Automatic annotation (TrEMBL):
Domain of life: Bacteria
Keywords: Oxidoreductase
PANTHER family tied to this protein: 3-(3-HYDROXY-PHENYL)PROPIONATE/3-HYDROXYCINNAMIC ACID HYDROXYLASE, FAD-DEPENDENT MONOOXYGENASE
Start and end residues of each FAD-binding domain: 16-356
Species the sequence originates in: Streptomyces tunisiensis
Keyword Oxidoreductase: yes
Protein name: 4-hydroxybenzoate 3-monooxygenase
Amino acid sequence: MTETPASSNSRPPQRFPVVVVGAGPAGLTVGCVLRAAGVDCLVLETGTRESVEQRPRAGVIEEPVVRGLERRGLAGNLLERARRDTACEFRFDGERHPFGYHELTGGHHWVYPQQFLVTDLVREYADVRGGAVRFGVRDVRVHDLDGDRPSVSYLCPESGHRKVVGCDFVAGCDGARGVTRVAVAGRARVARHDYGIGWLALLAQAPPSADRVLFGCHPDGFAGQMPRSPEVTRYYLQCPPGDDPESWPHERVWAELHRRLAAAGAEPLTEGALIEKRVLDMHDYVTEPMAFGRLYLAGDAAHLVAPIAAKGLNLALHDAFALGDALVERLLRGDEAGLAGYSESRLRQVWDYQEFSQWLSELYHGGATGDPFRAGTALARLRRLFSSPATAAAFAERYLGTAARY
């Protein structure tokens, strides 16, 4: 249920064609697409600009997403600064198994930390394209989403007054715990899957031990290395869900990383200070539909895919491209086809990526379940990946996000 915007200290409402709730990658990209077309919009964000620009999150970006950013004039720094990954490496049975996906597909991944991309998008939206944005707002509410005069209200951080903003459409890009997802909680169907595992997410002040992503499929649990820069490396360690990060001191972390990523002929890991340590419980959800009246959800407000396959940021940006373009078509040319088909078309890719995440999870974690049958089938999948050219090519396309168009 959405509310009627009533408050004793509310002011006469402002009006924008679109209000975007959330200044993450999806919200800022929608805003940039609108401003490039000359459409006014307002972005509302509860965090400060500094906090938004510094949140460390994902860093692996698919080539189709980079090309989408490039077409919209949003990839300048990324193309100049990002590292291109052309191969990864699986480690199992004590051996190294390099996987050159560029050789199979001609494609590659781009490694560009999400906070760098968000910093670029904030600058482009607010400083270059002149988009309106309010950081540090409180108690955001959405109103009258099913009518033709929706609005969004918020408490102004300076005055404490509730301000009301009228609009034609609301883009809900405020994440898993945001107000837009809460607003449709009683109307949406939410499908959820829990993997029953956790990942200890680590950021180490240490150079990577290899110039590629490493996937350690070990009987004691998965381990992963994701290079972020010459001086900083992202690591993951499988752990129980809800585990306490403080139960993983420096010595235990590095001992497990050394053990689970060990392989014949591999360079030893270079240890360093752990500058981030948190436990992620692996789960997915999908909210259906992704449109409710004049509200359109994008990114984690609509769906969450566990970081197992590095798809979350990519899905969010695909959503933003589709939603931004559809809003421009509706507002400037009166063409409603894009908005009418937004939810159905986006959900096709969302479910495809969710299925791949499940498949890959069994590859990573099946051997550590204690179930001999699952361990055997996980090992069979790994061996097939390196013995069947057709399997390798299919995996490479899905891993790179180039298998299909949606």
